[in-house]
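Bit of a strange request maybe. I'm writing a small parser for C-alpha cell strings and I need a real example to test against, not something I typed by hand. Could someone generate the C-alpha cells for this chain?
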Amino acid sequence: MPIAILVSFLMLLTLPASAAEESRVGPRIETNQSYLEEVMRQPSLDISDPISVFAYVLANLPPRVKVYPTENYFYFKFLHGGIPYAGNIRLDVNERDSGRIHFAYFEDLAEWKAEEQVHHVLLDQSHGVLVEKLGPLVYSVMHNNVRVVFELNDLTNVKPPPGLLRADERLIGPMFDESGLGFFLVFNTRLKIFHYILDETRGVAETFTEAEGYPRILIGRRTGFAFYRDIRIDRKILIGVFEGNARVNNYFDGPFDQLPDNFIEGETLRSAILEVEPHLEGRIDRLGISPGGADRYMIAPYRHYRTVEDLAIFDECATSKEIPEDLYYGCFVFIEDYEEGDGIGTAEVPTEESPAAETEATPLKAGVQR
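Reply from user aminoacidic:
Good idea to test on real output. This should exercise your parser:
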C-alpha cells in the first residue's frame, strides 16, 4: 500500500465518530440482514431495571454526542428479545445544573397495540450518576466509569431574518425539532395565538410537494409536516402533522414537545400563555410547567390530518372573502377535539370574539415524555 494511502487510512481510523461520519460520501445503507440479526439476538439485559438499561445505553454511546432537539432530549432506540424499545436521556433546563437528568424508555409505540409501561427515573449522584456542566450548553454525564459529553444545540445566534415577523408578533424563541426541522415559535399579541414558522435560515432538510388543488399547502415528503405559504409574508406556517405519526409519537409527531427552553428570555413565554389562559396565573412557571413538573401547557395550533381534505379548511379560511382581514392569521390555528378521542377535532371560522379556531390549552406530561 502506498505510504500516502496508508496514512490516510490510519487517519480515518483515528477520527472521532462524528468526523468519520462527515467524511462518508453518500447515504448510509441499512440492510434487512443486519436488522434480522439484531432481532434474533438473545437478550442479555435486565430490561425491567432502569439503572441497568441506563448503564447499557451510556456505555454504547460515543464519547461525545449532540443533542439537537431544543427541549434537550437525546433519543435512542434498541431491540431486546425481539421487541423494539425507544427512550430518551433528557438534560432538562430546570434539572441539569442541579446534577439531575431524566431517563425514560418503553416498548416502541405502534397503532395496532396498546401503550406499554414507561420506565422513568430522575438520575443523580444517589444513583451513581454524576452530571457536570463543562460550559454553556455542554455537560458531562458519568456512570460506572463511563463518561459521555452531551453538547446541547446552541441556537443563541439564530434570529428571524428581517421581515419574517409582523409588528404584532412576538418571538418566543428558535427551536429545533427531532424531525430535523427548525422553527420560530411566535406569539400574535393581537389575536392571542401561537404559530410555528419554518426556519429556513440554516437550510431545510425537507422536500415539499404542493397539495393537489391547494398550491399554497406544502407537504413534506419525509416528515409529513404540512405548511401554508403565507399570502402576506414570504414564510411557511405549520398547519398540519400526519395523525399516524402523532399517534405513535415518533420523530414526526410535531414540534409541541421541542419548545426553545434554553433560549426563552425571562417571562416571554409565561406572559404569552397567560394572555391566552389567564386562569393559569400562579399555576405555571416561566416555561409553562406546573409545580412539580407533572404537566406542561401544550402549544399545538396545527391539525392532525389523514388526508389533504383535512387541511383544506386552512386554505378555505385564508382565501375567504367573508373573513375580516385582521382575523386572517386566526385561520392557521386549529384545536384537536381530544374528548371525542378521534384525534381529528373540529374548527370554527374566526370571529371577533374567537379570532382563532380555538385556544390551544391542553396539558402535556413532561419529564417522562415518549
